[in-house]
Write a structure and sequence with these properties.
Layout lengths: L4 H18 L2 H12 L3 H51 L3 H30 L4 H29 L7 H9 L8 H19 L16 H7 L3 H32 L3 H26 L5 H21 L2 H15 L2 H10 L6 H10 L3 H16 L1 H5 L2 H14 L22
């Protein structure tokens, strides 16, 4: 099959946009709280609205994909994201924010279901591993960039003498809510993506057997397997950990150390995502020389140490430790996902859909942290992350994949990675 590098580039752009729209929520959290006068619990419902969309939309989208195909699903995803962005850009209140984030999350979930099989088909199976890593690096770069863009607009939108884009946004955005300008940007980006995809020619994608999302009966059958439930909980714990840290870091730094959320807080969230990208590169190397379960154990222990330093150290330590948690959390998602799929011998497409649905952890855990934070203080609320990370650590001991990751055999005499 002829490779379509234009579509590969379009998918990379889509990864960038998904990350840009998704991972700025944590940096915005203090502004949501201040702008709409929210408690920590009410603020936690904002990421809840975004990530619960993954739980509701991912599997139905997979079922619709065979009928409506990739192009229509991608356009629909960006239309939903455009409407969500436009809503909050035009109507500035808590309810519109909840609805907006749910719509944007729904659009991003639709896109996530489509782009991985499309990347395999367009770029070629022999290049899929490389292209997937490249996509994750681009995803990480956008996660790093979006809080920086937020910080720039929040700081400079109300400056006197602004021209061009800043002057335009200043004229349509309330002076006390400069961060709303980001949602105008999101709306424009989504509209541009709709136009680009509409004008693009897509290849025919024949899903492999393990990429097809099966019927509802298949999902119910899988949920009868204990290993499926265990890994579904693992995905909830991972995404909950990731988003629990990303969403509450800036507020934590403001509450306990007095750091400005529009500068230091936003920068720290950006570095959390940036170091997560760097950790992913290191993780790729380590997975070539040792068993993935061992890598998961080592990195999770280091992440727990980093979290402890972030929560109980002074301000200077916290600024370093939170991004370091991102570095060590970087391997969790790919290892959990691969261990899960390698632990059953059939229905991989349906199981992958179940695992993606586990992204609802990004809705549940920040909400729990916010609720505990209102009752007992934010630091105490963030202690809940010890439970989610403890569960992730346990995977390294109980997972028994049918196929282990291929290594160079440097750590054992048989040429095959061993856990202990």
């Amino acid at each position: 099959m002829k490779r379509n590098y234009y579509v590969v580039a379009l998918i990379m752009l889509t990864f960038f946009v998904i990350s840009f729209l998704t991972n700025v929520i944590g940096a915005l959290n203090p502004d949501f709280i201040k702008g709409f006068d929210l408690s920590l619990t009410l603020a936690a419902f904002l990421p809840f609205a975004f990530f619960i969309a993954y739980g509701l939309v991912s599997i139905p989208t997979g079922m619709l994909l065979e009928k409506y195909k990739e192009k229509k699903i991608m356009i629909s995803g960006f239309i939903v994201a455009f409407l969500g962005s436009l809503l909050l850009a035009a109507v500035h209140n808590y309810l519109s924010a909840i609805i907006s984030l749910f719509l944007i999350g729904s659009g991003m979930a639709m896109l996530q279901v489509v782009i991985n099989p499309l990347l395999r088909s367009s770029g070629g199976e022999e290049h899929y591993a490389f292209n997937s890593v490249l996509a994750q690096l681009i995803f990480g770069a956008a996660s790093f960039l979006s809080p920086m863009v937020y910080s720039y607009f929040a700081l400079h939108l109300n400056d006197s003498g602004n021209t061009g884009l800043l002057a335009f946004f200043h004229s349509i955005v309330p002076s006390n809510l400069p961060w709303i300008s980001l949602y105008w940007i999101f709306a424009v980006i989504s509209l541009l993506m709709i136009i680009i995809i509409r004008l693009s020619k897509f290849p025919k994608v024949d899903l492999k057997a393990d990429e097809v999302v099966g019927a509802l009966e298949t999902h119910l059958t899988l949920f009868k397997k204990p290993v499926v439930i265990l890994f579904f909980i693992a995905m909830i714990c991972y995404v909950g950990t990731e988003q629990g840290i990303a969403n509450w870091t800036s507020k934590f730094l403001q509450t306990y150390h007095g750091f400005d959320p529009q500068t230091t807080g936003a920068d720290t969230v950006a570095y959390f995502w940036g170091w997560m990208t760097a950790g992913g590169i290191v993780g790729l190397f380590l997975l070539k020389i040792m068993d993935s379960r061992r890598v998961l154990i080592i990195f999770t222990i280091m992440a727990l140490i980093g979290l402890t330093a972030a929560l109980f150290g002074d301000g200077r330590i916290a600024l370093i430790a939170f991004p370091l948690v991102g570095f060590f959390a970087s391997v969790m998602y790919p290892i959990i996902f691969s261990l899960a799929l390698n632990s059953i011998d059939e229905h991989h497409g349906s199981f992958a859909g179940i695992m993606v649905t586990g992204i609802i952890g990004g809705a549940i855990v920040p909400l729990i942290i916010g609720g505990l934070g209102d009752l007992l203080g934010l630091r105490t609320g963030m202690l809940f992350l010890y439970l989610t990370m403890g569960y992730i650590l346990s995977i390294g001991f109980w997972a028994k994949p049918l196929i282990v990751n291929k290594t160079l055999g440097l750590f054992d005499s048989k040429g095959e990675a061993a856990l202990l």
